[in-house]
Amino acid sequence: MKHILKKFWIVICLALIINIPILILGTVRTNQSIMLKGDTSNIDNVVTIDSQYDTVGSFSSIFVLSVDKCTILQSLFAKIDKTATVEELNPYYGHFSDWENYRMGQVQKNSSIMTSLITAYSYAQKENTSINIEYSFKSLCVSFYFDGTDFRIDDEIIKINDIDVSVGYSQFSQAIRNSKSGDVVTVLRDNKEMQITLTNCAYNLCRYYPYYNINYDTIYPKANIKSSFVGGPSGGLLQTLAIYNQLVPFDYTKGLKITGTGTMSVDGSVGAIGGIKQKIYTAFDDDMDVFLCPADNYEEALQAYNTIVYKEKMLLIKVSNFSEALQYLYYV
After folding, report:
1. Residue 18: pLDDT band by 50, 70, 90 thresholds?
2. Which residues contact 12 (CB under 8 A, 6 or more apart)?
């Protein structure tokens, strides 16, 4: 009997010795953030156009996975994974709730879709004058605010002192960038106007994205926007390409699976994004044929691309603006 009890306690002790460290490593959180590979998503899941033209290939955006305040065990595994990135958590994001983090991404996505529609329709109008889109600048919507300021996510900046959004995006955004302590900003919050007296330049207090009023009753062809939980601005370029491709007779996909990333501005410029390394690996895993990359992300993207075996199966293309992307796809 004593022999059996001795074996029992040996087993218990070994289990504790093995499992307690694992339990600690798996539950104690760090001040680190992990970026992991995600997935590609057909742009048709976000926006479609009532068009007579068929698309043989596809345009897809890419999302990656981010884990903030990861556990010690997650951090150790991520450091082994060559496709993952482990970084110190940005201290400026510590005051946001989970809901605010979600809304932050939705503000960016909403602005991205508006901008993609305006850019794609405006370019397509040059080929077909029956294509129509009517829009006006609405506001600068707050997507980030520094702790201790009076701004909140979803605030729409509509006026600074005596300058309002009627002056247009360029002039209004310039006025916001030139703001200073003591200036009074008017925002829409929960459909009510409220005033915030700045303690610094507005850009040192918050970040924002342009919102536009688009007349969906007169837009032609009709655009159908679908709800999505995926947020962020990085789908702008691919959204614009997918919309434009449905507005013109030429099929820019040529049967290829095209993906990539990059923000989009109404002037057609393509902006940098985060997580480019993980997006390269995700695209390759999903058997994409072409990856369109913002010029400002290209060097980092190329480093990741060059680590891939059989990388030639996917072309990596640097683009600075929408016209460059169209030109490449036309001649590919």
Report:
1. low
2. none
